[in-house]
Amino acid sequence: MYFYVYNQLFLDENKTIKMKKTGLIFLFQVVITGSALAQSGVPDATFGSSGITITDINGNDDAARNMLLQPDGKIIVGGYTDIGTDEDFLLVRYLADGSLDNSFGTSGKVITHISDGNDVIRGLALQSDGKIMAVGYAGVTNEFLSIVRYNSNGSLDNSFAANGMDSLLIYDNPGSDRTVPNDVKIQADGKILVAGFTKNSAGDLNCMVVRYDANGTLDATYGIGGKVVTPLGPGEAQWEHIAIQPDGKVVVVGYYNNGGPNNTMAIARYDQFGGLDNGFANNGIAVQAVASGNNEAYSVVIQPNNHILVGGVAPNGNDVDFVLIRLEVNGALDNTFGSSGIVITELGNNVDDYLTQIELQPDGKILACGASFNTTNDLALVRYQADGSLDTSFGPGNNGIVTGSYPAADEIAFALSLQPDGKVLLAGGYDGDVFVTRYNNTAVGIEESKAGWDNQLVYPNPAKDYITLNSQDYTLKQVDFYAVSGELIKHVITGSKRLAIADLPAGIYLVRVVTSESSSCIKWIKE
Fold first, then answer.
1. Nearest to residue 501, comparing CAs of 128, 43, 148, 131?
2. Mean pLDDT confidence for 89-111
3. pLDDT of residue 525
4. In terms of C-beta density within 10 A (0-12 exposed, 13-18 middle, 19 or more buried), how is residue 228 classed?
5. Structurally, how many domains does the chain consist of?
6. Would 475 be classed as within a structural domain?
7. Cα separation of 382 and 396, whole Å?
């Protein structure tokens, strides 16, 4: 086992585009990792073919909508493949070098036929035991929520629900119901959160959150029978992305329409039982119109100080651009970020730019991906400083923006993952095929020193699967383990000096440790 100091801890309607620290003292040394030696923001030539791997499933349209980074460095993407008559769930797994992993499914690919309609994965999550959770929509006359769990080798997990999968219609209006998920997250206790939208009998689209027990049954302790429906207006409303706070509260982002011509960005926070958190914004819901026109939120992360960073799109003159907003813990705009809490980024003059996902680096910088549409979609990757200003050390033009790395193609990045070495993985659609690409990134790495630990801090016990607080005066209060993707893996409230971690598999974790004196953030590798 190893412990590493970290500057900060990062946590972390079915629009399917189809295309042809801390102040505590540790005795450690900080070094720049090997990834810093390459130019930041350019494709990593050691990955795939000149930085990209492209996978044509069967000659028809395919795309990746989501991505997971396993602790062993393997990469899983999920989306859909057109089988000729309809679309099916698609999972593809790659080795760390970008080649297909032949130990997964059939030659690295898993196709799951759920209905005779279009079946599309919209959210992926990785369990601590390596099993893969996928949610999406499926169906012909009705579009229903489909949740599927796979074993680590890509086979269906028959211990979950009925033979590995379950389907859900909230209202069950024959021929017209839609219960569509957009994201899934796994809680520290193993329960599964799904967010999206559902269509009621009046034809309105309402925001939806559903929680399942780990075995695939609806959690009766959550909302009403495991389901929470939140109407935001008389028109269209949906949740797009989920983030789980360290205290277990759930933040969701998306947008709504009150019957007018434009959408408005919406952010809500729910308590652990599905009730809106009245300590957040206006009775649990914050709405934000950055500018006149369509304002939509597609991604959210929780920062170490529990501020909420949201990414999406907003109008800016004649086009639509990347937008970031940051909220304080109570849901108010954080005026220390950008311009009164808002950052709008135009990637190209008079072209539409679509942000799909944001992520935090351990140094507090912000990554955002998506596409910039000129005559075709060009993959887009942007890096910001922690205050929302563009990071001018990033990208070939040193302006913080990367677009058109593969100019001959029509491509969009739907998913972003940050490797432990700082390199950036993007996945999405490339001329109708699945693609994964990797960029060099000059994130500062932390390497192990030969020096010892401060007497009052947490240290690993190499003989047993415990972490221990080596202090006579203080105790542990809370320990949170996060995957490198930002997903909360384990949340423990304790009053002891030692915490058992035998249930955690080998891998890399970001750990927030709260003691009776103070708190710290560390990077931890369990071997």
1. 128
2. 98
3. 60
4. buried
5. 1
6. yes
7. 11
Q: How many CB atoms lie within 10 A of CB 275?
A: 12
Helix (H, G, I), strand (E, B) or coil at 37: helix
Please check whether residue 132 is in contact with residue 123, taking contact to mean a CB–CB distance below 8 angstroms: no
Distance between CA atoms of 245 and 321, rounded to whole angstroms?
Answer: 28
Domain ranges, residue 519: 1-12+21-31+455-527
3-state class of 463 per DSSP?
coil
3 state DSSP class of 15: coil
Contact of 463 with 1, CB cutoff 8 Å: no
> Strand order of the sheet with strand 120-126?
120-126, 132-138, 144-150, 165-168
**Does residue 359 register a pLDDT over 70?**
yes
Half-sphere exposure of 491 (CA within 13 A, CB side): 15
Residues in Cβ contact with 75 at an 8 Å cutoff, skipping those fewer than 6 apart = 67, 68, 69, 93, 94, 95, 96, 98, 417, 425, 427, 436
Burial classification of residue 39, based on how many CB atoms lie within 10 Å of its CB (0-12 exposed, 13-18 middle, 19 or more buried): middle
Rounded to whole angstroms, the Cα distance separating 48 from 45 reads 7
The answer to whether 259 and 288 have CB atoms below 8 angstroms apart is: no
Q: Is residue 522 assigned to a domain?
A: yes
Read off the amino acid at residue 111.
I
Nearest to 360 by CA among 54, 9, 53: 9
- Domain holding 463: CATH number? 2.60.40
pLDDT at 106: 97
Tokens describing residue 112 = 């799951």
Q: Extract the tokens encoding 150.
A: 């796979």
Q: Mean pLDDT: which of 24-33, 332-341, 460-469 is highest?
A: 332-341
Neighbour-count burial for 449-471, b at 16+ CB within 10 Å, e otherwise: eeeeeeebbbbbeeeeebbbbeb
**Cβ contact 132:81 at 8 Å:** no
The pLDDT confidence band at residue 241, using thresholds 50, 70 and 90, is very high
The answer to whether residue 477 sits within a structural domain is yes
Residues 6+ apart with CB under 8 A from 406: 52, 379, 430, 437
Q: What b/e string do you get for 287-316 counting C-beta neighbours within 10 Å, with b at 16 or more? A: bbebbebbbbbbbbbbbbeebbbbbbbbbb
Strand ranges, E, within 279-375: 285-288, 296-302, 308-316, 319-327, 342-345, 352-360, 366-373
Q: What's the pLDDT at 317? A: 80
Q: Are β-strands 488-493 and 498-500 bridged in parallel, bridged antiparallel, or unpaired?
A: unpaired
User: Encoding tokens for residue 100?
Assistant: 């297909």
Residue 126 has pLDDT above 60, yes or no: yes
Residue 27 lies in a domain: yes
Per-residue pLDDT reduced to its tens digit, 134-163 = 999 999 888 999 999 999 999 999 999 999
| Residue 445 burial (CB count, 10 A) | 18
